[in-house]
Design a protein that fits this description.
The protein is mainly alpha-helical and about 725 residues long. It is about 60% helix and about 5% strand. Strands 3-5-4-6-7 form a five-stranded mixed β-sheet, with helices on both faces. A two-stranded antiparallel ribbon has the order 1-2. Strand 6, helix 21 and strand 7 form a beta-alpha-beta unit. Helix 9 runs antiparallel to helix 10. About 40% of the residues are buried. The N terminus is likely disordered. This is Mycosubtilin synthase subunit A.
Length: about 725
Amino acid sequence: MHDWRETSETSETENTTDSETENTVETSGSCQVRSLWKFKLDPSLHRCWTCLGAVCVIVLSSLGTLLIGARGDMGDISYYLRYHADMDFLILMACTAVAACGAMWVWCHASTPHLLQASGFLVLNWIEGLTYTSWIIAFFSGNIETGYFLLDLKVVLHVCEIVMLQILVQNRLQSIWPALNQPRCGVWLNRILWAELALLTLGTLALIPDAIQRGKLGILMYIALAAFALFIPCCFVIWMLLVFATLCRVLTIFHAAQQMAQGVSFESGKALRRSRRAALLQGLGLVISLASTCTLVLSFVNALLGIVDVADTFTELAQCVNLVTHTIGVILLSGAYRFWGRVAENHTSTDSCSCFKSVRPVRQVRPTREIVGSEWEAITQELAGRGISVQELLLFYRRLGKDVMLSYRPNVHTTNDVVRQAIIPMTAANGSSYAQLVNRGEPKMPQKMVTHNWSNLFRDLLASVIADALEEHTFELVSALLSDEVGINALEQMIQVQGNLEDVYWICAFAVNQHSGICGANPRADVDPVTMLPHPVCSCGTPKFFNSTPPLNQHGESIHCEMNKFDDMMSFLACRDVSFAEVVAVDASLELFSRAWCMAELFEAHRMGMTQILLVRNKDTLLRRQHMLEGLRVQDMKASRQQDVDVILAKIPNKDAFNQRLRSLILDRNVGLLTAWKQADSLQQIEQLSHVLKWARLSTSVEDGLQVWQNWV
């Protein structure tokens, strides 16, 4: 058994340090955000400073680039602008300025990593335009060596631009692959991109000697030409076909879902229309960017083959089109167009986007379990092997209200009611846990364990498990689908399509043998909330083992009791499988955080570095009630049996330090469970397209998919 003394004492020191180094905290309603500055500018003043800074960057960068082309001679620039600058060149300068403004505007509104990456691509697009402009000045000013260098730089920048555009698109599609249930497409796109990067590196290295020693078209130059003119375009074309095929499938799925949901509900129709429109806009942005890239590549290939001159009008116009269309296309692709007319966000504040918060990585080092005794260890391992699949959970749920627990109402009965009136009666003849019954005594190792409180609706417990299997962050829609038979059928079909029907979870209500513990008494006189009859008491006669029932180990703990081995069981499973995770099924009233065993499991999973997945009913419930968690104290927590509370409290000598560490685990603005959930959910909401797309794909893949849109929330 793990003793929390060391953890509590260590956490006291850590929290003291954290409190001393914490930045200024500003309160807004019930939420607190950390600011890196002692003051914040007025939004209108901040916009002025941002615009002024962007203008200065544009002017200074443009002037510096022109000076490079003229080798620092302002006279050459003046001479060229006076005698050689034609309308094509002036259009090129204007398009370069448009690219610069677009890059600075997106950067000023880059409140997410994706937008920041999009602004980086637009900056590269702008630099490429400046390089080409500088090359033209160098060419007409007679600076041949500088011109050759800038031309080589222009080629490298353009290839880098192609690769960065691909990275930007792949990051945008990252949430699409799980929605389409096609992770291998993303893998193949990554492989193609890595091949392009390798060829780009090879070609660039081959260009370096040629840039140093002109006049000889050596073998290195041929390698560079082959890399840039043949292999990289081939990889790019294959990549582009895969992306377009993906976009076509997305639009096809949305069209089919719209046809299915037509006239069903206003909310579902609105979500589908909004998502399809977003897909069309982002697809349009991608098409525009790729088309302009291909046009520019074609113009330079013609120049290299001698068909046109590098400074020809066609090439200059192709460069102009590339600059403007890349700017428009990436603004559409990244979704930055939604910020038009809004005040720019302050990059120095972390309250604009949780994505910028520093999050410590989850520790993957597993603890070495203490062998308390061979019999203790054997019972622990046997308990750990009582997983239950999603399919078995659905089969059990279907029986409620039919041939088992006839009074069952999904929106009324709790897990405690179901355990007392369904699980215990169904397993009485065998005197075993439900998992042992359905698994026929064979061990079934779980992939995840579920932390939940028995006062939560049983429907919501099952909805949390299914939502996790479907990679959702909230379970409200799943809970609505579980309220009738048609919805259950639709869910089962969708989980089967997703390929997660055989996922195995460890749930105490099904894994623990209730007949060796609580079945023989109803100490709190609990009643069925529908019939108002007391919960039945089992007369199976199975021996009961509680915390202090002999035989005891050296710590005074009952060896045969299954309810005192949860932390050892978690440790065993975590050591056995590094990907073993904890699903935290949070009830609508957040009562889970006041239950002693739930908090013990949360803390133990965190101590062992397990991945912790928070499932809540909906975002509004969490935001509205999270202030209730600010005063968490382990001394105030409850359990069904007082002796469980006593056992947990006995392991915590420094309770104040433990409380502080517990609140940090849940509420910390950098690494807390709620912060991690908000980050994951905000990513899902930002990528609302992929969220709706997943349900659109699942609903169009099953017979009863219409239920999704009838229950859409």
